[in-house]
Amino acid sequence: MSTIEAGRATADHLRLMTLMYGTIAAQVVGIAARLGLADRLGDAERASAEVAAAVDAHPDATTRLLRALAALDLVAETGPDRYRLTETGALLRSDRPDSLHTAVLLLTDPAMLATWARPDAAVRTGLPVFERVHGADFFTHVGADPRLSERFNAMMRQMTLPVARALPGAYDFSRFHTVADIGGGDGTVLAEILRANPTLRGVLFDTAEGLAQAATTLDAAGVGDRCGTVAGDFFVSVPGGADGYLLKSVLHDWDDARCATLLGHCRAVIPDGGRLLIVETVLPDRIDPADPTPYLSDITMLVNMGGRERGRGEFAALCARSGFAVVATHPLLGPYSLIEAVPAG
Hints:
Residues 17-92 form the O-methyltransferase dimerisation domain. By secondary structure, the protein is an alpha/beta fold.
């Protein structure tokens, strides 16, 4: 074997070993989030003993945790037994507007991890395993647990905010008189759209649990007087009276049949000249190994919810099945795009 071949074999070995340790790496990040380690480090450089005292943890174990975090580039080793947050690690701070702290807490929660003890069943059957493990589907289980529900809503807000802020600059919402955000949660997306369009009115539609923090979000954005909230089940019906219907990160939670039902309800109330706006991760035409997150999200949807991430053609087929025709796709941030569709026929 040549030196180049040996080096490549070593790199391949390291790559696969890193993937094998992926579950442990996620747990290391989860421990840091649960301890509030990033908040304690803040902007300072600290010795591991200081960090251990601040988070009430064992000194030697904290040193070992900090070393692992440094190997993952979440903290930097600035000197012998001294550490500070990296730019990536700072996203674990709970006081940042772009924080991923709550997302880490939810995704490393025992209730979420329990389903990954049996992922093979999802691949063999094509069906989620969450209900087998917990006795209820994902949304029923989360809705019945106040702690998980709060974390889920907070995670959705944290992960939605960057896309919400990009939307008004990527699409002209001034063409509408009313936008209905279907499955819009606490209103993070709709608040940004209304704030950028002072004459626009909004309707925020979700379950009662999903709307729990909506009033706070809308009032904080100064748009509460232009946005009504409606609680309901979008598999039964959606509110009428809007000329723009928005679904952000909703369809990927469900299989094609359930999505067609939801989109059919939108088709039943949307007026001629109205627009359906779908904001989702759109899988590229060719797989990009440089960014595996859309595909890992796809497997997560399979295991936990029975949903899926989709490509452009799949969204077009889903819209056509429900009485819509896709007329444009507008790139947003990262893998996200806004798919614009009109009533067909």
